[in-house]
Design goal:
Layout lengths: L8 E3 L11 E2 L6 E7 L3 E4 L2 E4 L5 E2 L3 E4 L5 E6 L3 E5 L4 E9 L2 E16 L8 E4 L4 E4 L3 E6 L5 E7 L1 E6 L2 E6 L2 E5 L9 E2 L7 H14 L1 H46 L2 H51 L7 H21 L9
Antiparallel strand pairs: 1-17, 2-11, 3-6, 3-8, 4-5, 4-7, 7-10, 8-9, 9-11, 10-11, 11-14, 12-13, 13-16, 14-15, 15-18, 16-17, 18-19
Helix pairs in contact: 1-2, 2-3, 2-4, 3-4
Length: 346
Amino acid sequence: MRTPKSRKVIVHTVFGALFFLATVPLFSQTASVAYFEGRPELRTGSATRDIDFGDDVRTGETVVTGRADLVELSQPGNNSIRISSNTVFTLREVERGGERETVMSHTVGSVRYRFQTLTGRGQQVGTMSAVAGVRGTEFEVFAGPDGATMILVDSGLVDVEAEGVTVEVRANEGIEVFPGQPPGEIFDRIGRPIDYSTWQTDRLDEYLADPVRGLERIRARGETLVRAMIATHELYLASAADLEAARARLRELQEDGTEEQLAEYRDTVANPIQLNTGNLRLNTRYYALSVLSLRRFVIGRMYMTLKTMFITDLDNPRYREYLALHHDILRDFEEVVVPQLNRADI
């Protein structure tokens, strides 16, 4: 039974609440493979290779573990990320507040974070349904097959944000967050051992009991990413047009202006527009790649599970309804998201 806690609750209405995955300034550097078991893979776009000791995991790369795999990444300051079996963990880059930062994307599975050194605003990590801003040292994040999240804090303090609401989770406490909902009630972990595999099975069972409802929740979260992608792409197109005009003006100044006029226009107008255009394109791809991960590792895996479940009952009305919804999601993905991806991505 959960024990409700009296806790500060903050409601956010800023655009940043649309981000499923959080920025992590410390992780702008690569993470190194300090230890691994089994045969985990490192994916860069559509290319895949086996992980080895000492490998660097760079921005844009994904660690994928199987049922018998484990990977531990190390960072300066004795910080570590322990990636458990059946997990998908990605580092991506995004621009926020005028700075390029690296994003820790935890799509499915279980990851334990241990921070011996916290800098600046601390660390932030995220899943499909929640963002965790870390002001502590050690915690674990579970990302379920249905898009749900559970965060367990061993020490320190974690701010958990979802759907514009943030609550504080302290040492020896936990919290669950479901797609499209604010954070749930905080519960005490003392005397309540929690096993990820059991929690994952519970989440899967609930999804399979009503797969249409489960897929609708996941679709809603994906649509939020798509809306952000479209809005960012429109800003990119406008900035790209400004950049073309700025380049034309530079050519005019090269022919008719002075060196001082050329340098001033380049430094005060053209270069900032070029930087903004590149950042907007970067963020458009960030959203597109996030939807791709959702499509590949969550929706795709659940589709295969449902297909196996109904293999002898293909005309089941519930299954047919699920397939129709799944078809709509794939159609929208092909029409809206794929144009923002590169061939190497898929």
